[in-house]
# Entry
Amino acid sequence: MRRSVSSKDFKMVNNWWRRPSQDPRPGGTVYPTNSCWVCENYDRCQDRIVARFGSEDLDHWTLFDPLEEAPDLFLRFARLHREREFAQAVLSFTYQYGLPCGTSREDPNVNVSGQPEQLTFQRYFEESQRAWVVVSLYESVLNRDEDTARSLLSDYRHLDDVFQEYFDMLNWDLPEDTAPVTALQCALVAAVSTVDSVVRESCKQSIGVHIDGMDQPDPSAVKLDWMFDSLLGAMYLQMYWLLTSGGNLVRCEHCRRVISLARPHPQGRKRRRDKRFCDDACRQAHHRSKKRT
# Structure
């Protein structure tokens, strides 16, 4: 069965990263601490979308928390470039979520620049397409599909230097005693490197002390905070979490859905680390498919 990354996958990973738990997190529990500005009106001006108001008119702007309100926004953005009425789809997306390059609440220039945010349709298309390639490369790895991985790197290498780099790597002339690089290896590293590059540029980590409700602070009050300087950074952070969910999330061997290994609630019983299937139906279907082969 071929498996695609779904909104459910993103939501499960987001919930795992954000909720309090007795299970350890890499770096601690995550507390995203900022939101993005969304203008109440955007206009189509020739080849670009422009916010109608500048940042000095904050009465016409609202705050949107992408990690809380739309944990699968990276996936929605990645599908945008495939819409038949692309310009209208972009406008609808922007009205709801803001521009990908839009400033976050933490941007020190939001009350200073006074310039309307804007983005060309071409850049919008390319950013959406690049996000789609990242998701598709990751899916090719999940499905162990060497041909699709190779085609993606070949067809979209013009979009990003990372895609070009790993496409070239597939065509290196290696010494005879060197193991060849596979398309799936290149696909996974290309997806991870692309996401990591955007997160490094647009997001940052810090540690904060969260003592609300505590009579006496203790070391558990120290948490890892994430901040992002644009909507694009927040979206890539969602994909970053999906890629780095690691040992606390696995995929069903039959349907390839994400399975959480964390406790269902802080007092719940910890799930087995060797869980292989979502449920009995997937387990039985997997065994039937093995018998047929």
